Every structure is written in C-alpha cells, then in structure tokens.
Amino acid sequence: MNDDADAIVFIVDDDAQVRGALANLCCSVGFRVETFVSTDEFLRTVRPEVASCLVLDVRFPGSAPSGLEFQRRLAASGDLTPIVFITGHGDVPMSVQAMKGGAVEFLMKPVREQELLDAIRHGIERDRQRRGQEGLVSSVRRRFDALTAREREIMGLVTQGLLNKQIAVALGLSEITVKVHRAHVMQKMEAKSLADLVRMSDRVLPMPMVGPLA
To answer: What are the tens digits of pLDDT across the range 113-142?
Structure first.
C-alpha cells in the first residue's frame, strides 16, 4: 500500500505553469494534490484531516502577504501544516527565517525534483507523527475525563509515587478503598502498568495533583 496516497500535497503558487508542473510531479509518485493561486484561496478551502504538506512560494504579487508572513500567520492560528518553501528570489537571511519558523525546507527554483519530493515526504511524515500524537493525547484525555473526581485525585497521587497506605492517610480513606479506586483507575485508563499510567498522566496532568478533596 502506498502511504503517500493517504496524504495531500497543497501547492500555492501564483504562476499557473509552476503549479501545473509541481502538481504533475507530485501526482506522478502517487500524491493527492490540491493547487491554489493564492494564500487566501488556500485559507478559504476546507481541508480534510489527513497528513499533508504545503508547498509554498515565497513571493506573491501586489499586496498579498509573502510566504514568510503567511507562515507566521498560520503558526499564530495554530495551523501546524509543514511547509516546503520554493523561490526564485531567495537569500540566506530569508532561508534562515523560514527554517527558524519551522519550515521543512527552503528550495531555489528551478527545483530539483528528487530534492522536492524528499522534502515533501519529510513534511508529510512529520505531520503524520504529529497527528498520531494528538490522537493519542485526545484518547487519553477522553479516558481521564471519564474518571470520577476521587479517581482523578488518586491517579495524581499514585503517579507521584505514593503508596496505597500513604494515599489512604492523606485522603482519610481506608487502604482497601484506595486499592479499589486504584484498580478502577487502571481499568478505565486502560493502563497495563504503573509506568503506563505515569506516561498517560504526563499527557493530561501537566502539574502534579496534590492535596485531598475538600
């Protein structure tokens, strides 16, 4: 199975000839492709929730924002689509700015085909990994939200390394009650071990949970 077929390459370039050539290249190796004449057109499009990479020109005519400015706007809006910049008028400071902003690559026209395809694949893999991590965090969050307030409290104390008897004293509960709650936490969180639960806690509890319920 070609994983590339499940991803999308977005191409934004005001030059129709360049857009066509880039689209043909990407399609020839199995990528799905969508092309846009401007960043505004790109923003107006509803994009599917799949791994993707944006191939973006650096300069646009008239008052349109530059590719670098558009990169900043996307980042500010929380859009983390990986970007491969292409330009016929680049320089070192511009490329440094793009890479510091998180760009996958900064390529000069005429672009070497294999170099571009390698950069796109890198961007798609980066996006695929990010989406996988976000999906994992979302799944853990749903399970955590299903816990009772007491179970969340006990999960926080367990993942801080407290023993059942210490938790029982801290919360004014019997040790057997703590054991029951702890078992429920492990079951609901689908944790196979304490280490597994600690890793989940790191995703949903950025700060240690301390102190008993009032």
So the answer is: 999 999 999 999 999 999 988 888 889 999
CA angle 51, 101, 26 (to 5 degrees): 35
146-204 CATH fold: Arc Repressor Mutant, subunit A (1.10.10)
Taking the CB of residue 32, how many other CB atoms lie within 10 A of it? 16
In the chain, the amino acid numbered 19 is: R
Structure tokens at 100: 């510091």
> Any idea which fold 3-137 has?
Rossmann fold (3.40.50)
Alpha-carbon distance of 40 to 36, in angstroms, equals 9
- Domain(s) labelled CATH 3.40.50.2300 in the chain stretch across 3-137
What residue has token string 């500010």? 76
Structure tokens belonging to residue 17: 């000839």
Q: What is the pTM of this model?
A: 0.72
